[in-house]
């Protein structure tokens, strides 16, 4: 989830509201200085060859990933193998969740009842970087029943405790919802594990370097709903007043994020100049972005770029970000291979779960 946040209990690297809005903070988090706005691109990477048995094919995809991660920190992936029916299925579940549940049924799932930030978030309930967010959301995390591997029995919640943390609508209130979520979550988790092996290759590490860290990984997903603005915004500019912000400016906290959305664009990515790049919607592709753990592992070589959401359309936007973490008992510590001779790590080691990183 987000790291430049003021309210979520999941972030350890919280900065204050004032800091988050300061030019110097944003400046420090702009995409690599080795790119300019004109060379700033979010490439489309067809990852079909990454499923090949040839290491050279997989390395070729990893090289494209490295190039994106060291510049904009964002890329699209196509050729990922998740059926289009699974993708449209989860968007439909998101639409059903927000439209079909009554206010009372949503209240039963209210995020304020969860110490992990799971459940339903009403619109304008959260603020980020000083902006009250207009989005409505539903958050859930890893559970073995959502993992096609069945897990290894060792999953613990963010705070190290055992037991179910997710909250779900009652089956009779939204028939088929849990099954739909499971179909999507298990596929996107599989894909994230596959991508993590490509990230390892992209860092000149053995392909299985991170494997032992993702046997029961944290993986928070959200269904998000951004209504169309009351008065449409000019699409040609990237200006937005504070009451038009769906999701405030932030970077993501975990390893990387896989973002799926409906046809309505809305994601805006901070360019080197401080202007916003409006990400186009590419049907059936995911947008992948580097999050803070990968930035820390790589000593900032991989960019965890600031982004936000503004719906400038006349239609609603639905999105489903999946934040891929690692086993929560693991520690994220700068990879020696990412340090030049004599260079000191910029970031302290932190635990992936709250119980570890709160002791920093
Ligand atoms: O909804 C989107 O398009 C992006 C969501 C996002 O950036 C987040 O939840 O961290
Ligand atoms: Fe994000």
Automatic annotation (TrEMBL):
GO terms for molecular function: metal ion binding; oxidoreductase activity. GO terms for biological process: small molecule biosynthetic process. Residues 209-326 form the Fe2OG dioxygenase domain. Pfam families: 2OG-FeII_Oxy, DIOX_N. The keyword Metal-binding applies. Gene3D superfamilies: B-lactam Antibiotic, Isopenicillin N Synthase, Chain (2.60.120.330). Keywords: Iron, Metal-binding, Oxidoreductase. The keyword Oxidoreductase applies. PROSITE patterns: FE2OG_OXY. InterPro entries: DIOX_N (IPR026992), IPNS-like_FE2OG_OXY (IPR044861), IPNS-like_sf (IPR027443), Iron_ascorbate_oxido_reductase (IPR050231), Oxoglu/Fe-dep_dioxygenase_dom (IPR005123). Belongs to the iron/ascorbate-dependent oxidoreductase family. This is Flavonol synthase/flavanone 3-hydroxylase.
């Amino acid at each position: 989830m987000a790291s430049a946040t003021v309210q979520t209990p999941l972030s350890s690297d919280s900065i204050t509201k004032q800091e988050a809005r300061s030019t110097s903070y944003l400046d420090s988090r702009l995409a690599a200085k080795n790119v300019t706005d004109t060379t700033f691109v979010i490439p489309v990477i067809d990852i079909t060859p990454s499923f090949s048995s040839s290491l050279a094919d997989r390395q070729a995809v990893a090289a494209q990933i490295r190039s994106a991660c060291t510049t904009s920190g964002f890329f699209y992936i196509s050729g990922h193998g998740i059926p289009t029916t699974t993708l449209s299925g989860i968007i439909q579940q998101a639409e059903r969740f927000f439209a079909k549940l009554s206010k009372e049924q949503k209240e039963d799932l209210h995020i304020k009842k969860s110490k992990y930030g799971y459940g339903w978030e009403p619109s304008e309930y959260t603020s980020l970087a000083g902006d009250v967010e207009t989005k409505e959301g539903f958050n859930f995390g890893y559970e073995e029943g959502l993992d096609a591997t069945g897990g290894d029995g060792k999953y613990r919640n963010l705070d190290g405790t055992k037991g179910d943390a997710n909250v779900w609508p009652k089956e009779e209130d939204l028939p088929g919802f849990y099954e739909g979520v499971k179909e999507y979550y298990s596929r996107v988790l599989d894909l994230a594990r596959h991508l993590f092996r490509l990230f390892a290759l992209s860092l000149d590490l053995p392909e299985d370097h991170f494997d032992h860290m993702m046997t029961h990984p944290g993986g928070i997903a959200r269904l998000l709903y951004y209504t169309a603005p009351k008065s449409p915004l000019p699409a040609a500019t990237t200006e937005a007043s504070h009451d038009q912000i769906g999701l405030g400016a932030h970077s993501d906290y975990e390893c990387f994020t896989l973002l799926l959305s409906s046809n309505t664009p809305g994601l805006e990515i901070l360019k080197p100049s401080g202007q916003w790049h409006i990400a186009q919607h590419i049907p059936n592709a995911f947008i992948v972005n580097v999050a803070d753990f990968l930035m820390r592992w790589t000593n900032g070589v991989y960019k965890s770029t600031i982004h936000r959401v503004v719906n400038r359309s006349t239609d609603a936007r639905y999105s489903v970000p999946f934040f891929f973490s690692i086993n929560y008992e693991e520690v994220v510590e700068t990879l020696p291979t990412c340090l030049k001779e004599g260079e000191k790590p910029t970031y302290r080691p932190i635990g992936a779960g709250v119980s570890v990183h709160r002791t920093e």
